[in-house]
Amino acid sequence: MVEEISVLRQAMSNRLQMVTTTFHRYLFSQINWNNRLIGIRGYRGVGKTTLILQHIKEDFAERQSVLYASADHGWFQTHTLYDLAEYHQQHGGTHLFLDEVHHYHNWQTEIKNIYDDFPSLHIVFTGSSMLHLNTEAGDLSRRLRMYTLQVMSLREYIAIERGIEIPVYSLEDILNDSINIASRIAEQMTIQPYFETYLQYGCYPFYKEEGDGFEQRLQETIWLVLERDWPAVEEVNYATIQKTKRLLMVLAEAVPLTPNMTELFAAVETNREGGLRMLYILEKAGLLALLSHQPRSVGVLRKPDKIYLGNANLMNVLSPNPNIGTIRETFFYNQLNAAGNEVLLSPKGDFVVNRKYTVEVGGPSKTFKQIRNIEHSYLAVDNTPIGDVNRIPLWLFGFIY
């Protein structure tokens, strides 16, 4: 076993040598690393692996006490998670980091058994955003502290590009004090050029290493989500995957779409139940945003009232002629939703946030005509450095996480 484990240790060492610690995703400082069982889920490509490797590199001077392994490593073809945990604990290990656990069958039961049988061992695992906890499999949720890593915010992109650490502002801060906040940021930099490049490629941290290859990398990431991550999480056949890919491309050419479900599902040769399931899978994967006028009931598949792509970068890669108005609306929804706000469609204006604030998104010539006389109404306006009362620069909503 010693020689076999050395393969994983070498893989961990190689990864640690490659990882940098000059920039940390927002979630890094929010995680209570002292918890015994931590889960981190998120969309493919947002930096889950880098996040845990940074923690190992910075906080574990004694590397023998920590072990990192990716669950899709070939080692697990002949060994189990439990084997690894038992060996590690018996040889003085205190922390076990398991990456991409959705690629390991029955991961939940094994992690529950590891947690129960080795009380001195701390466990951190990462998994797909499509990961779900089966409450019948040992009720792991009672023991677990689960975190979700979203795509990068505009604030984080600025931190990478300029090295400027701008604070996080709450939605209420932005709505009530936008002029002062925007003025402080404008004193440090001219933000519009960075906002425009963020919309093209700033949502995924791998843009930094890919350069001109970003679009191809993002396209590959999209297909890996559907071809590898989805089948790892639940049973799905090849035909359904192909139909779902076709559905995504149909929608990419039409967003924002107020869907006619009969026509939409006929275009991909599926029925209503199958089509709705595909839509919700695409949403859980971060590839679509499904909006409604009313809050959704948990576990109920319901026709969305409007469909967007998941973020602005996806629009630039998947949509043949991305519309700037749609990109703006997609950005606003993505940033607000990622920060945990409830965003619904509005009968007047574009969105209702937290059932209180009505927001209309547009360009610099946008007026209050559509939302006049509505209490707590605001414009989120592009190409605007400072704004005015209730007329807020669109980019400022990229600083809420």
The helix tally amounts to 14
Domains (count): 2
Rg to the nearest angstrom?
22 Å
Helix content: 40-55%
Distance from first to last alpha carbon: 44 Å
Q: Biggest sheet, open or closed, and with what strands and sense?
A: 5 strands, parallel
> Regions with pLDDT < 50 over 5+ consecutive residues?
none
Q: How would you sum up the global shape? A: globular
Class based on secondary structure composition and strand pairing: alpha/beta
> Strand arrangement, largest sheet?
2-3-4-1-5
In terms of DSSP E residues, the strand content is 5-15%
Number of strands: 12
N-to-C SSE string, H for helix and E for strand: HEHEHEHEEHHHHHHHHEEHHEEEEE
Q: Output mean pLDDT.
A: 95
Describe this structure in words.
With 401 residues, the protein is of the alpha/beta class. The protein folds into 2 domains: 2-149, Rossmann fold; 155-399, no CATH class. The chain has helices at 2-18, 48-59, 81-90, 107-117, 154-162, 171-188, 192-201, 207-210, 214-233, 238-252, 261-267, 272-284, 312-318, 324-338, and strands at 37-42, 66-70, 95-99, 122-128, 145-149, 288-291, 306-309, 343-345, 351-353, 357-362, 377-381, 391-393. A 5-stranded parallel sheet has the order 2-3-4-1-5. A 5-stranded mixed sheet has the order 8-9-10-11-12, covered by helices on one side. Strands 6-7 form a two-stranded antiparallel sheet. Strand 3 (95-99), helix 4 (107-117) and strand 4 (122-128) form a beta-alpha-beta unit. Helix 3 (81-90) packs parallel to helix 4, helix 9 (214-233) crosses helix 13 (312-318) and helix 10 crosses helix 12 (272-284).
